[in-house]
Amino acid sequence: MANSGSQNWCEAVNKDGKPCGGYRLVGSEYCSAHDPENKAAMAEARRLGGITTGQRIALRVLEESAFEGATVGSVGDLLVETINQVRTGKIDIRVANAVGYLSNILIRARETADLELRLEKLETTLEEMRKDHRAAA
Ligand SMILES: [Zn+2]
Cα of 62 to ligand 1 centre, how many Å? Predict the structure, then answer.
């Protein structure tokens, strides 16, 4: 009854006796929640308490790769890494969506800060030119 021969679904059976129904991780017979390699991260998540499956997976991702975020290039690296993690089933699509969304905000915040800095320099230059002009008159 479980899994009806599909190669894509998790082998685990839930407490109610029904198949898990989660997508298998690449190279595993289980989903991210049931994969034995995830057990340590899950135990840690349970210890912390009240953590959802998505957050549990995010926790694992955070443990594996802390994001420095110092440059726009590093955001690009993060996005490429996230794309590959989604394609290989290493992270939940919800985590990838959150990474994409937050990266977008981060890039826009940087662009705004950069524009403000350039505007401030222009205003300073303009003020100095006015002073010089008044002094020369
Ligand atoms: Zn499962």
Answer: 21
How many Å lie between the centroid of ligand 1 and the Cα of residue 100?
25
Question: Of the candidates 76, 124, 125, which has an alpha carbon nearest to the alpha carbon of residue 103?
Answer: 76
In this predicted structure, the answer to whether residue 78 has a pLDDT above a threshold of 80 is yes
111 Cα to the center of ligand 1, angstroms: 41
Interatomic CA distance for residues 58 and 83, integer angstroms: 15
| CA gap 30, 38 in Å, rounded | 10
Strands (E), the chain: none
Radius of gyration (C-alpha) of the chain in whole angstroms:
25
Q: Is the four-CA dihedral 81, 84, 90, 93 of positive or negative sign? A: positive
pTM above 0.70, yes or no: no
**Mean pLDDT of the 5-11 span:** 73
Q: How far is the CA of 120 from the centre of ligand 1 (A)?
A: 55
Q: Which residues contact 73 (CB under 8 A, 6 or more apart)?
A: none
- 3 pLDDT exceeds 50? no
